[in-house]
Amino acid sequence: MPSVDPTAPTPPEPADRRPGDPSDDVSAAVVALQKRAIGVLAGLPADAIELGGLFRDAGHELALVGGPVRDAFLGRLSADLDFTTSATPDESEAILARWGDAHWDIGKEFGTIGARRFAGRRGATSDVVVEVTTYRTDAYDPTSRKPEVVFGDSLEGDLSRRDFTVNSMAVRLPDLTFVDPFDGLTALARGVLRTPVDPRQSFDDDPLRMMRAARFAAQLGFAVDPDAYAAIQDMAGRIGIVSGERVRDELSKLLVAAQPRLGLEVLVDTGLADHVLPELPALRLEIDEHHRHKDVYEHSLQVLERAIALETGPDGPVPGPDLVLRLAALLHDIGKPRTRRFEDGGGVSFHHHEVVGAKLVAKRLKELRFDKATVQAVSRLTELHLRFHGYGEGGWTDSAVRRYVTDAGPLLERLHRLTRSDCTTRNLRKAARLSAAYDDLEKRIAQLQEQEQLDAIRPDLDGTQIMQILGLTPGREVGEAYRFLLEHRMEHGPTAPDEAREVLLRWWADRSA
Length: 513
Fold this sequence. Notes:
By secondary structure, the protein is α+β, with helices and mostly antiparallel strands. The chain has helices at 23-41, 46-57, 67-73, 89-99, 155-160, 184-190, 199-205, 208-220, 226-235, 244-255, 260-270, 273-276, 296-310, 323-331, 336-339, 353-367, 372-384, 391-394, 398-408, 412-421, 428-452, 463-470, 476-492, 497-512, and strands spanning 62-65, 82-85, 102-104, 112-117, 128-134, 136-140, 147-151, 170-173, 177-179, 192-193, 223-224, 341-342, 348-349. The strands form four sheets. A seven-stranded mixed beta sheet has the order 3-4-5-2-1-8-9. Helix 14 (323-331) crosses helix 17 (372-384). One of its GO terms (molecular function) is nucleotidyltransferase activity. Pfam families: HD (PF01966), PolyA_pol (PF01743), PolyA_pol_RNAbd (PF12627).
């Protein structure tokens, strides 16, 4: 295994490694977390406590594990109720069939059985959904992209095989006994992500845990422990054994987290992004004294943060967190490395980087197994993100505004936010000018939308009318006529049916001649 590159970026310093951090402060933080957790765990559904009793009466252990326990110490009751048990999947299924109003065994081959109790029992106002998994360990065969599942025999053993110590805590049911064999509570108080076993062993067992380190940094705002950080630097290439779908899911969770920048910096600085999203570190273009331009990587992170700030509430046009907007903000400039040219006089150009970038975005997102709609939306936003520039200088005709709206289609509100976020200049006068220009553009769009229903621009005559006027049957010529009338509508705005008929007949006569 190669040693850590001494020139590679160093990990951010976790709270417990900072000089002068008194241990009594950490102890006080632990006590505060414990008090908070008591209040949260007291709010566990009575149905869950009852389930613990059923497993105990059948001679099995049952414990709440992972994220729900961690979140309890952070002061929030998780909607997910994930349990681990000494019972076999068949034994769990038998108990859950008695406890729940419905149960399922879709994850049975991985040891997981799910069940649901409908609202109304014990006065509950919502359904109680649980998943119970037999103690297990997951490890990759070096020749396979799927983890092998092996069932374990103890709670402590199960916890030792989890990703980080903050997720390796448990609460036994029904007596609510706290189990923390790897001191996850202290790590939680210090805000650090450690693995319960040697990080190289942990990441070798499941390389996706390296992605989770970045994801939890984004979700929790925690620092990655230096040993784990160094292991990721050493083993980043091991992520190649993991399927694109699993990598995509972790990347998506990272991007919709509270602080995606923190997670993205972990991906890039450890070298993990070189294997899962290489276009992102490629944005760190070298800057020298003769060719000055923005740090495109830093610019992209700033655009992402600005776009997040422009997301709306659930009733707004772009409810946050919006994965499409965030992907577009992060990736909108990935065509720049491919199109960079040094100009005479020290300038740098990136001509047509939006077109090249749109193709690169589509290629990368397809490889990561994103759905077709997401691929198309992010690629289209990348292609359109420069369209606005020049509006303030030369002004646009009404036809240009119509084309802008029509080309954006249902992505218009996202495009508004992406374009505004892309202005990260420190020149206050320029920033104010661009903002005012875009304000004016949005005002003109609103005026034209009110007058012309821009969201659904169609030719002034439909296909049936075209065929009747020209005496045609369905075919290529009808399509040509339709496109001509749509172009005329874009250029001149709406016209009356009689005028549209005359325009069509003149075009047809010229075409025939």
